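ARCHIVE CARD
Drawer: 12
Card no.: 0347
Subject: one protein chain, sequence and derived structure
Cross-reference: see card 0346
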Amino acid sequence: MNLKDAAAREAFLKTLLDEIDTAYKATRAEVQELLDAAAEETGMRQIAASLPDGRQIATVSITGGTAEARVTDDDAFTAWVRGVAPTEVERKFTTTVRTAFKTRLLKELTAAGGTDWADPETGVIHEVPGVQIAPARARTHSVRFAKTGRADIAQAWRDGLLGDLTQPQLTTAPEETS
């Protein structure tokens, strides 16, 4: 497959993926709402999902939620533990770099493309240890559609013009987003 064909295929598939994701999320929310209502009204906690010919393809079931204890007020919790179980309290001396300085320094080093930092007050250049310039994310590309690109792809898909892929029906033109 050449680059032009591969790029077109990516655009086609991205259109389908976006449509399917939107439909899936809406359907999942609807199913949850209906399952919750059925559980409340009749106690039903699961239902069979079937093909139009009646063959069962899945069972959709409500799963129980979970609960867990979490500390939401560290000071209050620590004070309580100190009074009830004082041997379970650790005392530590911690040294950290101020967040604002760290953020500013890392931004300056990123802009400079290296780990040498010039102290603005003294002019002394420092090699900053423990910091390196490293890729933050892999090289990638984006798909940006023309104004009617997604709608055009959807129509071509509906017309059977996009090749050998399984062709679900896109019944409405997708919204244009990038």
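Annotation on reverse: The longest helix spans residues 3-42. Helices lie at 3-42, 74-84, 99-112, 149-158.
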